[in-house]
From TrEMBL:
<dbReference type="Pfam" id="PF14127">
    <property type="entry name" value="DUF4294"/>
</dbReference>
<protein>
    <submittedName>
        <fullName>DUF4294 domain-containing protein</fullName>
    </submittedName>
</protein>
<feature type="signal peptide">
    <location>
        <begin position="1"/>
        <end position="19"/>
    </location>
</feature>
<keyword id="KW-0732">Signal</keyword>
<dbReference type="InterPro" id="IPR025636">
    <property type="entry name" value="DUF4294"/>
</dbReference>
């Protein structure tokens, strides 16, 4: 009985000591109003989305698969944005078209070497999601990116290939309308919830 009381006492003391730890969020100056001190603090942003209602298990499975596809494709779209930020100034700093073409071929080769095997395993819907996410990350359509860096003929060629697979490189990203669910999933991924 003494042991049980001792263990309860220690566990209670441990819980109380944990509850008394100082909040590590950054505090700012406050002000006093009617005898109350109001302190300003930075708190973590909380994003609230409407709760998804699924009519049946099939809808839930489709949503879960969609989340998995976005999680698989999103890092590639982020990498595309980072590469664009890195190479675009260098590309426009080059004076001749020959040097620009050489640079683009080198970047394409590096990307293919890095992602070729992974991309072979992707489905058409994965590619569609990637096109939307590239548009979201770079704020430019894939068609305009190809047109800027590879030219009009190349952009028309790849648009034709995309149309064969029922995709469109010119489609924009509409986070408030057509792509609302995609925007919610990406936001949750960025905040670390998914």
């Amino acid at each position: 009985m003494k042991r049980l009381i001792f263990i309860l006492f220690l566990s209670t003391a441990f819980v109380i000591s944990k509850a008394q730890e100082r909040d590590t969020s950054k505090e700012f100056m406050g002000y006093v109003e009617d005898g109350d001190t109001i302190i300003f603090k930075n708190i973590k942003e909380v994003v609230v989305f409407p709760q998804r209602e699924f009519k049946n298990k099939r809808q839930y499975r489709r949503y879960s698969r969609y989340v998995q596809k976005v999680k698989k494709v999103y890092p590639v779209a982020v990498e595309a944005r980072e590469l664009l930020e890195e190479y675009e100034p260098q590309y426009y700093a080059l004076e001749s078209n020959k040097e620009r073409r050489r640079m683009m071929k080198q970047v394409e080769k590096e990307l293919l070497d890095k992602h070729k095997e992974e991309l072979k395993k992707w489905s058409i819907s994965d590619g569609r999601i990637l096109l939307k996410l590239i548009n979201r990350e770079t704020e430019r359509t894939p068609y305009s990116l190809i047109q800027d860096f590879r030219g009009d003929v190349s952009a028309l060629f790849w648009q034709g290939i995309a149309r064969l697979f029922k995709n469109n490189l010119k489609d924009g990203y509409e986070p408030d309308d057509e792509d609302k669910m995609l925007e919610e999933i990406v936001t949750l991924i960025e905040l670390g919830y998914l």
